[in-house]
Fold this protein.
Amino acid sequence: MSGAMWNEGYIAVDWGTTNRRAWRINGRSVSDEFEDGCGITAVADGGFPAAVAAIRARLGNLPLVMAGMIGSNRGWVEVPYLPCPAALADLAGALHEVPGEQAWIAPGLRFSDEHRADVMRGEETQVFGALAEGLVPPDSVVCHPGTHNKWVLVQDGRIQRFRTVMTGELFNLLRQGSILRAWLDGDVTPGSAFRDGVEQGLEGRALTAELFGVRAAVLLERLEPRDASDYVSGLLMGADVRTGLDEFGRREVVVMGRPELTRLYAAALDVAGASSREVDGDTAFLAGINAIAETRA
Amino acid sequence: MSGAMWNEGYIAVDWGTTNRRAWRINGRSVSDEFEDGCGITAVADGGFPAAVAAIRARLGNLPLVMAGMIGSNRGWVEVPYLPCPAALADLAGALHEVPGEQAWIAPGLRFSDEHRADVMRGEETQVFGALAEGLVPPDSVVCHPGTHNKWVLVQDGRIQRFRTVMTGELFNLLRQGSILRAWLDGDVTPGSAFRDGVEQGLEGRALTAELFGVRAAVLLERLEPRDASDYVSGLLMGADVRTGLDEFGRREVVVMGRPELTRLYAAALDVAGASSREVDGDTAFLAGINAIAETRA
């Protein structure tokens, strides 16, 4: 990296599966930004140089520091996962330079033990950013909802282990193509139907039966069709929260991500009798990318 | 119904959501049959008289006796659910005549108690048919896989209660649109990956986490991509079998339906330490429609 270019700032990119978000950073301030639907699955084979050029056309000819699915086997360049436990310095030290492109990609993390394996790309940057900003205590559990919710155990400022739950994707699949789809088009709000769903999900050993039960309950007029979206979302999040709380045995959770999701998980955690604090994911991401950039500039 | 027409036979139709199957019955013998993709969702508004005429054009101008989703709110005529417990005579007594059409539709069943509600359409006809033929004991548990698997408690020859699990539909959703889809295109066979999945599903309290775990296991080379389809199917069926065995507390199950599905559930039940016997669903359906027709002819 050229120090001269860093003095003019750089571009941070959170490049996911279906969306990407980019910010121009000067010093520690954001001077411009945009978000679009050009996630990695929207980029054709061989199309990443052009997709990257489009970012620079909007935000300037600056170095790029990226995290997320851009480093996956379907992204621009595959950057190997780092093993857990991992600290910010490990992530910064394994930053991958795309040759000749003035572009760097942060690796994701992997966890495995005798029972299971797990992977993440992008959330680790947010967790380390929130740690650097003091938004997440150095010993804590972070819940990071999205297409795939991540439960992350942070110990001594490192990501020790984590577990992924397919909640958001499953809700989208049910909403798009299932026998329940006609009732799942509304926005989800954390009212009484949502909380009923969470209670059932927390208790339940039979999620796939409870899902069909929603259809029966509507047909037999035990559930209002307009409440189905809240109830199903609550059911899935209840099962998710049970998994996360069981996994790490903690009752205090930092919920980090998009505010419209963190408020739902905060409500679900409340039903479960756990306390939570919400942290904005974009703030955390920028702090993480900045912290990585500072170790490299 | 006119006795003269019955003497010339009738047409039995198992009319589901995505498929229909029709048989011409003379006495108790099948003299012709066909199956096609003209399920109820393939019939446009107002299109049922034409869809019925097409059946008669192929099999003859005979009375029709039908069961399945044809009697649902998205079918030809909505026929109210009968409450459980219900016997064959209840079903036959509630057969709905479509006015002026020489066509009859069997009702479905509903179950509700303080905890939950459930509905079925079509499987009840198979269960009663199998009971009439002695293929199912009068006190037994029947597992009926399909898009929605039904666990049915039969007591004293009546359907006492039942529970539906959304296994088949969920597998199809994952196969069509999920992040796992590239690995789920193979046929499912009940080998070791399937049995591993069943064990995990039987044990698991975290199905939606285990589903993402399949992605991580493939990425980290703990699971062969070619085994993912068997493993995911096993995972979902394991959770399903746990629900069914827990629900009724029995370890002997009759598995009824399409042979390619019943053999998978038989294998999953074997992993769970339960015994099973397979019954062909078409045989049971024809026996059920015949038994209903005989009470009305």
In short: Chain A touches chain B through 43 residues (CB under 8 Å). Residues 1-5 of chain A have pLDDT under 50 and may be disordered. Residues 228-248 of chain A form the longest helix (21 residues). DSSP finds ten helices and 14 strands in chain A.
